[in-house]
């Protein structure tokens, strides 16, 4: 009986270890496709293969009642710290991508930026789909999200259920690390990770 218990315990341990290893390897190999082109808050095209900088990637939808705006607010504070260190816009940029491109047009994204007093610049880019090509661009947004293992679903009421992580990717759009969204977003931890990557 003792032997069976030990064998079962070992099997469970091995399965857990294999599962953890799978997720670590999956995350480490994640990369945003460089051929993805979306539309920014000014209606201009943005291609993930062109900007050779570190990127902190946030997924939101502007009607989100809690976790998205909380994360954006914390990123504003992080931006201020990075500006003081003279690296924001030079070594690191922020990219916020809506998962609701039908509602979150470039104009709506600009209003969202204004609500958080985020300057309209190339240093913090807000991405959506082209209204003229919205179905195809919606697929592109999902492709970017899934490349980083970010999952989301609209249950039909416009209140999306989604993964709660932001992602740091390198100049080649390859995954470096992820951080919790909302109240769990630790500004200092993210700042230190960015500065370590820059050094």
Give a verbal description of the structure.
The protein has 199 residues and is α+β, with helices and mostly antiparallel strands. Helices cover 41% and strands 21% of the residues. It is built from 5 helices and 9 strands; from the N terminus they run H-E-E-E-H-E-H-E-H-E-E-E-E-H. The strands form 2 sheets. It has a 7-stranded mixed sheet. Strands 6-7 form a two-stranded antiparallel ribbon. Helix 2 links the parallel strand 3 and strand 4. Helix 2 packs across helix 5. The protein is globular and about 40 Å long. The chain starts with a helix and ends with a helix. 31% of the residues are buried. About 10% of the residues have low confidence.
Name the features:
7-stranded mixed β-sheet; alpha+beta; 199 residues; Thioredoxin-like_sf; single chain; two-stranded antiparallel ribbon
């Amino acid at each position: 009986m003792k032997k069976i218990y030990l064998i079962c315990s070992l099997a469970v341990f091995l399965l857990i270890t294999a599962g953890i290893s799978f997720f670590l390897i999956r995350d480490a190999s994640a990369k945003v496709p460089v051929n993805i082109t979306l539309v920014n808050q000014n209606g201009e095209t943005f291609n993930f293969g062109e900007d050779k900088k570190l990127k902190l990637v946030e997924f939101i939808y502007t009607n989100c009642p809690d976790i998205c705006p909380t994360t954006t607010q914390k990123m504003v504070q992080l931006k201020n710290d990075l500006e003081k260190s003279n690296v924001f816009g030079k070594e690191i940029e922020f990219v916020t991508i809506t998962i609701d491109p039908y509602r979150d047009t470039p104009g709506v994204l600009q209003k969202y930026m204004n609500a958080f007093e985020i300057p309209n610049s190339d240093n913090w880019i807000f991405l959506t789909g082209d209204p003229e090509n919205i179905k195809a661009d919606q697929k592109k947004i999902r492709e970017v999200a899934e490349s980083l293992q970010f999952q989301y679903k609209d249950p039909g009421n416009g209140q999306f259920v989604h993964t709660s992580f932001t992602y740091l990717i390198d100049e080649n759009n390859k995954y470096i690390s992820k951080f919790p969204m909302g109240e769990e977003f630790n500004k200092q931890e993210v700042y230190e990770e960015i500065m370590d990557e820059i050094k």
